[in-house]
């Protein structure tokens, strides 16, 4: 697998299990990258949905992708604190075109007080039937949800305030 360069601007492509494009983030600055991990930052980036609609993100965000974990985490820096949006997804791949992953519908939204909600369970059930998600995928995703909840409670990894602060400071050096 290729590895993006630190400081490089890359696209992020989200797909569905059936191979169809789901969403594209136009521009994310790579803050750290190796075979296992990509950390990026973006702010007011254009996002294109599968139906062609576009929207622009509203605040700075630090994005965490892992090559062995079935989730990615976006820490959004808002005036009232850090909100996290966790996509339950395949591990990422990078191929010089973009960082890519499969979105498995389920999401966890984490609030500044560390409370959280699991979102889109109905969408997951519907797509699981439509796209024939294998049982092994279901088990992997549930295990990763449990791991994410553990990280949230323990304020570990991307859920530590120091993590977001460190990478946001680095992001600002690239923005000039």
From TrEMBL:
Q: Which InterPro entries match?
A: DUF402, FomD-like_sf, Ntdp-like, SA1684
- Enumerate the cofactors the protein uses: Mg(2+)
Record key words, sorted: Hydrolase, Magnesium, Metal-binding
The UniProt record lists the EC number as 3.6.1.15, 3.6.1.6
Q: Where is the active site?
A: 23
Question: Can you tell which superkingdom this protein's organism belongs to?
Answer: Bacteria
Residues involved in Mg(2+) 1 binding: 87, 103, 107
Q: Where is the DUF402 domain?
A: 18-156
The reaction(s) catalysed by this protein are: a ribonucleoside 5'-diphosphate + H2O = a ribonucleoside 5'-phosphate + phosphate + H(+); a ribonucleoside 5'-triphosphate + H2O = a ribonucleoside 5'-diphosphate + phosphate + H(+)
Which residues of this UniProt protein bind Mg(2+) 2? 105, 107, 120, 123
Say yes or no: keyword Magnesium present. yes
Similarity-based family = Belongs to the Ntdp family.
* Task of the protein: Has nucleoside phosphatase activity towards nucleoside triphosphates and nucleoside diphosphates.
Q: What is this protein called?
A: Nucleoside triphosphate/diphosphate phosphatase
Species, as recorded: Bacillus kandeliae
């Amino acid at each position: 697998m290729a590895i993006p360069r630190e400081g490089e601007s890359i696209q992020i492509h989200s797909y569905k299990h059936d191979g169809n494009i789901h969403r594209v983030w136009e521009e994310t600055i790579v803050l750290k990258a190796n075979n296992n991990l990509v950390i990026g930052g973006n702010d007011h980036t254009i996002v294109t949905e599968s139906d062609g609609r576009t929207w622009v993100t509203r605040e700075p965000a630090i994005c965490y992708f892992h090559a062995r974990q079935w989730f990615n985490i976006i820490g959004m820096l808002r005036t009232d604190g850090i909100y996290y949006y966790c996509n339950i997804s395949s591990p990422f791949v990078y191929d010089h075109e973009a960082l890519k992953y499969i979105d498995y519908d389920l999401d966890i939204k984490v609030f500044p007080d560390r409370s959280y909600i699991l979102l889109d369970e109905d969408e997951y059930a519907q797509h699981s039937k439509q796209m024939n998600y294998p049982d092994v995928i279901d088990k992997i995703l549930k295990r990763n949800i449990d791991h994410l909840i553990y990280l949230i409670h323990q304020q570990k990894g991307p859920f530590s305030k120091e993590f977001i602060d460190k990478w946001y400071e680095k992001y600002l050096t690239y923005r000039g």
